[in-house]
Amino acid sequence: MGIVANFLRVTQHELDEILNNSSILEDRIEWPDDPALLNIDKAWAGILYLLTGYNWEEAEKTPLPLVRAILGERVVDEEQEMGYGPARYVAVAQVKEIDQELSAVSGEILSGRFDGRKMMRKG
Questions:
Q1: Alpha helices in 21-82 (DSSP H)
Q2: Does 5-122 carry CATH code 3.40.1760.10?
Q3: What is the pLDDT of residues 66-84, one digit of tens each?
């Protein structure tokens, strides 16, 4: 068992509803056929490393947009337990910033960071 990640694309209106009533989020992530839901399972750690060169512990201390792309930034509801803590999200303005950063990531950058042994050592 380990930490898994799900991403849910929502409108600002939907986000506002979730922030007002976080149980909506719990219900929503149970819709496996929802085209707005992406489950990357445990691959999040490898994706985070390839995008940033950081493992989870290092990334938590780094305010880079690409870190926020995987780990989120703001907490939906401190009291809501989603497995390994509360759900997190990024605001619309941050999504635009993340999109710009992701657009600059080339296959060459990703393949240059890929080192399976190092990734396993760093966690």
A1: 23-28, 44-52, 56-59, 65-71
A2: yes
A3: 999 999 999 999 999 888 8
